[in-house]
Write a structure and sequence with these properties.
seven-stranded mixed sheet, Four Helix Bundle (Hemerythrin (Met), subunit A), Formiminotransferase-cyclodeaminase, Chain B, domain 1, 563 residues, alpha+beta, Alpha-Beta Plaits
Length: 563
């Protein structure tokens, strides 16, 4: 899986649209960046920009945007309703997929260091990237705002984490951090009463409600012994919520900010609101997600509702997402198109013409053409993906078999293991072609003089090592999937035992084919010791897989003959 992070910088300009355009223009110029949203506010005089991509290019785009903002925005003339202390006021990095928070923190700090050193702008690291607890809070870092910076920045307590401890009158300061994904989420109710919607919101939000005597809205506030109002905490952590009425829809909603979906994900918030609404005699009719969401958010929701029905979740992502959309009622107010609302899908436009996304017919025709790629390596990965998919199919059929209801989770787990394997193998279909193209590019480098010749030789060696690494990875992934096929042949739905055997044959072909690709590419490596261990391990894997596949065939043939 590619590492993807989101960046949500807030710039202290929401009125001069040309300034905003010039800032977003430098972001979009960074190749591989997807600009997801630009939200200017006139009253706040502030623009929130959202973009995403792989970590290194996101950090580069963020730096270029901060640099451009420092050139175009003069904080000496800034006014607005929103708290602020810099031209780029805040710049959080958010892990989306394939990356940990710890890794995201390192990228945030690297960005902060570069901004401080190259742009001479004071930087405070906040949230997860903070170096000390009191700086985790953005409000603390920004206290005193721009006007308070001259005295704050020279104090020992608030010395910047990076950049000069001097007041930058033009650019102010910037807070750079790492935080978890925040989702704006509204839940629809079959009522027009804001009061009742608020009551549900107070039940679930982390801040809860103030304890009152009698009427929970108008009753006398109950104080503790220190004279402070007593609060009844809500049931959901990291959730802010309020009730409101939407005239356009003629219904009340619970408007929520899920500030950390690793603590309270969308599906948990939805179900809890359903439960609390029912206590008030109100029914949830659907919900709406504002903006874009990570793929994992939708997959987690879909799997949650599948598991509540005792159904296997080892099915294609599209079906899991469909379950999430239907279960959350995301299509009640407007169509929910996953291709336009899931970050990873928005970032994969370049994948539309890749081999793994072609129809079987088109892929076959392309393979049969006079182009050397896709070749045997890609075909081996594709055959392996089909074998693992067959194993998942047997597991899913077994999970639904009449009389086996109590075993649905066991088979769901096996189906998911197969899914992990076939998804990675589909990725490797294209990785093999990419590796081949790198080799061809290396052989095409000039070699007229000694320096060029040596550079070309090194490039060929590095590209060839990549061309060995990919099929070797195919072998390991395929071998790892074999246990699932063995289990399905042994304990799966007996009517599908032949499917498990065909899946095993596919894995055997994939491993042997990938092994041939490892060996033919190893011929080009000048240092035989460099790939000796890989070749030996490849031989062992192939031998072991062939042996296990033969055993599967024998078991299945015995089952069939016994019928």
């Amino acid at each position: 899986m590619k590492q993807i992070i989101e960046c949500v910088p807030n710039f202290s300009e929401g009125r001069e649209l040309e300034v905003i355009r010039l800032i977003t223009e430098v972001i979009e110029k960074v190749q591989g960046i997807k600009l997801l949203n630009v939200d200017p506010g006139y009253a706040t005089n502030r623009t929130v920009v959202t973009f995403a991509g792989e970590p290194e290019i996101v950090v580069e785009a963020a730096f270029q945007a901060i640099k451009k903002a420092s050139e175009l925005i003069d904080m000496r003339h800034h006014t607005g309703e929103h708290p602020r202390f810099g031209a780029t006021d805040v710049c959080p990095l958010v892990p989306v997929s394939g990356i940990t928070m710890e890794e995201t923190v390192e990228y945030a700090r690297a960005l902060a260091k570069r901004v401080g050193e190259e742009l001479q702008i004071p930087v405070y690291c906040y949230e997860q990237a903070a170096f000390e607890p009191k700086r985790q809070s953005l409000a603390n870092c920004r206290s005193g705002e721009y006007e308070g910076l001259p005295s704050k920045i020279v104090s020992k307590e608030w010395k910047p984490d990076f950049g000069p401890a001097e007041f930058n009158a033009r650019s102010g300061a910037v807070a750079i951090g790492a935080r978890n994904f925040l989702i704006a989420y509204n839940i629809n109710l079959n009522t027009t009463s804001v009061r009742r919607a608020n009551s549900i919101a107070f039940d679930v939000r982390e801040a809860g409600r103030i304890l009152r005597e009698g009427d929970p809205f108008t009753g006398k506030i109950v104080n503790d012994k220190n004279g402070e109002p007593i609060r009844i905490p809500g049931t959901l952590k990291k959730v802010r919520a309020i009730g409101w009425y939407i005239k356009e829809y003629r219904m009340a909603q619970i408007s929520m900010n899920l500030t950390d979906i690793t603590v309270t994900p969308v599906h948990v918030a939805f179900d809890e609101v359903c439960n609390k609404a029912a206590e008030h005699g109100i029914r949830v009719t659907g919900s709406e997600l504002i903006g874009v969401v990570p793929l994992q958010c939708m997959l987690d929701a879909g799997k949650y509702f599948l598991h509540k029905q005792n159904r296997s979740s080892g099915i294609p992502d599209e079906e899991i997402i469909e379950m999430a959309v239907h279960s959350l009622g995301l299509g009640e107010l407007a169509p929910f198109d996953p291709q336009k609302r899931i970050i990873e899908y928005l970032l994969r436009d370049e994948l539309k013409n890749q081999q793994a996304d072609h129809s079987l017919r088109k892929f076959t025709y392309e393979t049969a053409s006079d182009s050397p790629a896709p070749g045997g390596g890609s075909i081996s990965a594709a055959v392996g993906a089909l074998g693992a998919a067959l194993g998942s199919m047997v597991a899913n059929l077994s999970a639904h078999k009449r009389g086996w209801d109590e075993r649905w989770e066991e088979f769901s787990n096996w189906a998911e293991k197969g899914k992990i394997a076939y998804e990675e193998l589909l990725f490797l279909v294209d990785e093999d072609t990419r590796a081949f193209n790198l080799v061809m590019e290396a052989f095409g480098l000039p070699k007229e003089n000694p320096d060029q010749k040596e550079f070309r030789r090194q490039a060929i060696q590095e590209a060839t090592l990549k061309a060995i690494e990919v099929p070797f990875r195919v072998m390991k992934v395929t071998a790892g999937a074999l246990e699932m096929l063995e289990k399905m042949a042994e304990i799966g739905n007996p009517n599908s035992s032949s499917d498990a055997a065909v899946g095993a044959l596919c894995l055997r072909t994939a491993v042997s084919g990938a092994c041939l690709n490892v060996r033919i590419n190893a011929v080009e490596i000048k240092d035989p010791n460099l790939v000796k261990e890989t070749l030996e391990q490849a031989g062992r894997i192939e031998k072991e897989v062939i042996k296990r596949c033969e055993q599967i065939q024998k078991k299945v043939l015995l089952k069939i003959s016994a019928k």
